[in-house]
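FYI - complex with DQA, inputs then prediction.
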Amino acid sequence: MKFLIINGPNLNLLGVREPDIYGRQDYAALVKFVEDSCVENGVDCELYQSNHEGDIVDKIQSALGVFDGIVINPAAYTHTSVAILDALKAVAIPAVEVHLSDVNAREPFRHISYAGQACLKTYAGFGFEGYKMAVEFLKNHIGG
Ligand code: DQA
């Protein structure tokens, strides 16, 4: 079983960026955490981060026939991108949405998720742990 883990814009600045909201650990620490979570679950994974909407769309399209599941934190594109929603719908690979922060407890514009409408589940507000929860959920959902 192979999962694609996608992180959207500004998540490469974890640790530097608004640490009171996103924590003090950097993106490399997130990568290690997610890779370890996948190893624990016996799942192969590839992590991808981009600050560019079209690149994320391309990556989702290229997942067809390659990955069994997608874990995605579209970051700011969560609240704006119909293109990412459509890409997830197009490939129809089981997907789970993750947010480090509790988006529903923040500004009203963060309460809307386009990508989430193509996802089986959303974990928000659990920090890094949300990615592990998403991997576990997807693994059980797919039945490995
Ligand atoms: C985020 C929440 C988004 O609203 C924000 O734009 C991000 C990160 C999170 O992980 O909490 O960049 O997706």
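The pocket of DQA is lined by residues 10, 73, 75-76, 78, 99-101, 103, 110 (CB under 6 Å). The longest strand covers residues 2-7.
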